């Protein structure tokens, strides 16, 4: 039986382990942490439970596909609820918008409360769907680095329609032309942050992202986001996958045959483990700089601008807020200035956009009675040696002022417990270089083509998955990276 070793039990690594097990491989997963999930973690403090990383679940078909490949019923392992409201938006001028999952309700909400028309919303979402149709098979589900990927009729059609993906304008420029109201432009600009990018630099191709929510729906797993990890690990173990936790891989071992190298396995705790295939779910930067000894790294790829990171406060809150829903956004008054702080000053704006996720709105066991679990996040720069203690203290003060001002309550006395996650801890806990959440940023019109491929062109049978390689970060794309490897192998 051929052997496969997966380095890292993030969501892409787990998906890869399942796919190789279904193919008949003897699969072993090594992870430096005590439990699986990578960025998709869980935290319990003071009777509250929090998902520590990704908080929005979209495109569940890519999860279901893994169970179906194994001839299992996904609903026997994993269930989720479709949200009627995707998000609630709060603005400094008093505007409040409910982003309903029903596009008709959403468009009417915008037309009734702002200077933008419902038609603009319909036109925008049609454009978003069109970008998805053009890019899905080519950019998302296939390797961009193999000739055979371009020998498909749907690929040829996509390339002929390349101009329609809007790669040559910034997202913000495109959205300004779609909406009369700057606040709605801001609402749709925020989707650049879904892959850690700047809407004032990133291509308008990122307007594909709203289709993930409005075309397919936004969901919440019935037991929280970490239930996704539990369900996939359960499936993997049933397929015979072995997980070794607290097991940090020290080296990817390869041997030279003529002009080519071939992977041989890994070293973990000084012990060698043989494998026919190795898949690294570790950040591509650390894969080269820590695991591939005496091997030339692709300097241009690794030197690219990293995505933004996050500063997250996990707050156990006393009381219940009827104004808030599962997902809530409190916008900065000057959005461009906020991104200037992140990308140019490498700092945090005094008026950051604040995201609050409250899973206890639907999962009552996530908080004690008459309490809520607030996951409070702002976008911040990747770690480049900033004084994070000072930045965190100032950011917390500014976040509280903003929430107090808009909600007209005093939040701080309601906080009964707190834990904080910053870029330094993100790098330490998840192996993400500089604490960036999505590998490289997409602040470049050619970003999709500049990500590292899912395979090594120099070392045979060495593959790469996860958010730091093609096709990008976030749960759906991480799962697709595992699918691409499956198709390549």
Question: Can you walk through the features of this model?
Answer:
It is a single chain. With 489 residues, this protein is of the alpha/beta class. It has a domain at 3-40 and 226-305 and 443-488: FAD/NAD(P)-binding domain. Helices cover 34% and strands 22% of the residues. It has 16 helices and 21 strands. The chain has helices at 11-22, 61-69, 103-113, 118-140, 153-160, 171-178, 182-189, 209-214, 226-238, 284-291, 299-302, 335-343, 388-407, 423-430, 447-450, 475-488, and strands at residues 3-7, 26-30, 42-45, 48-51, 57-58, 80-82, 85-90, 96-100, 218-221, 242-244, 249-257, 260-268, 271-274, 277-280, 309-318, 327-330, 354-357, 371-380, 415-421, 459-460, 462-464. It has a 7-stranded mixed sheet with strand order 8-7-16-17-18-15-19. A 5-stranded parallel sheet has the order 10-2-1-14-21, with helices on one face. Strands 11, 12, 13 and 20 form a 4-stranded mixed sheet that branches. Helix 1 (11-22) packs parallel to helix 9 (226-238), helix 3 (103-113) packs across helix 4 and helix 6 runs antiparallel to helix 7. The relative contact order is 0.18. The model has no long low-confidence stretch (mean pLDDT 94).
């Amino acid at each position: 039986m051929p052997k496969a070793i997966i380095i890292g039990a993030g969501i892409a690594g787990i998906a890869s382990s399942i796919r190789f097990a279904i193919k008949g491989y003897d699969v072993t997963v090594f992870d430096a942490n005590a439990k699986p999930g990578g960025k998709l973690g869980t935290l319990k403090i003071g009777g509250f439970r929090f998902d520590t990383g990704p908080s929005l679940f979209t495109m569940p078909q890519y999860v279901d596909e893994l169970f179906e490949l194994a001839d299992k019923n996904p609903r026997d392992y994993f269930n989720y609820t479709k949200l009627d409201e995707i998000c609630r938006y709060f603005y400094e001028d008093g505007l409040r918008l409910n982003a309903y999952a029903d596009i008709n309700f959403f468009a009417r909400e915008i037309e009734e409360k702002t200077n933008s028309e419902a038609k603009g919303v319909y036109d925008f979402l049609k454009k978003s769907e069109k970008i998805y149709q053009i890019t899905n098979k080519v950019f998302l589900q296939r390797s961009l680095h193999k000739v055979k990927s371009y020998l498909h009729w749907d690929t040829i059609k996509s390339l002929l329609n390349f101009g329609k993906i809007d790669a040559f304008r910034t997202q913000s420029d495109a959205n300004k032309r779609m909406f009369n109201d700057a606040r709605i432009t801001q609402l749709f600009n925020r989707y650049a942050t879904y892959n850690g990018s700047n809407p004032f630099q990133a291509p308008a191709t990122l307007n594909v992202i709203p289709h993930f929510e409005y075309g397919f729906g936004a969901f919440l797993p019935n037991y929280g986001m970490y239930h996704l990890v539990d369900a996939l690990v359960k499936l993997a173990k049933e397929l015979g996958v072995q997980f070794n936790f607290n097991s940090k891989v020290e080296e990817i071992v390869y041997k030279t045959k003529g002009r080519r190298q071939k992977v041989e396995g890994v070293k973990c705790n000084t012990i060698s483990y043989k494998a026919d295939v190795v898949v690294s779910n570790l950040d591509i930067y650390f894969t080269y700089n820590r695991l591939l000894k005496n091997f030339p790294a692709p300097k241009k790829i690794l030197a690219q601008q990293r995505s933004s990171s996050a500063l997250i406060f996990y707050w156990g809150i006393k009381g219940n807020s009827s104004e808030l829903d599962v997902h809530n956004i409190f916008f900065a008054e000057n959005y461009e200035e906020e991104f200037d702080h992140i990308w140019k000053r490498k700092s945090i704006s005094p008026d950051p956009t604040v995201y609050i996720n409250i899973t206890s709105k639907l999962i009552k066991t996530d908080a004690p009675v008459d309490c809520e679990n607030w996951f409070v996040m702002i976008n911040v720069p990747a770690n480049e040696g900033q004084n994070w203690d000072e930045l965190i203290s100032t950011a917390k003060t500014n976040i509280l002022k903003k929430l107090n001002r808009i909600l007209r309550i005093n939040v701080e006395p309601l906080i009964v417990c707190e834990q904080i996650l910053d870029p330094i801890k993100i790098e330490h806990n998840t192996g993400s270089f500089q604490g960036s959440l999505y590998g490289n940023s997409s602040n470049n019109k050619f970003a999709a083509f500049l990500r590292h491929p899912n395979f090594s062109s120099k070392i045979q049978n060495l593959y790469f998955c996860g958010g730091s390689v093609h096709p990008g970060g976030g749960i759906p794309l991480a799962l697709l990276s595992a699918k691409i490897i499956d198709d390549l192998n």
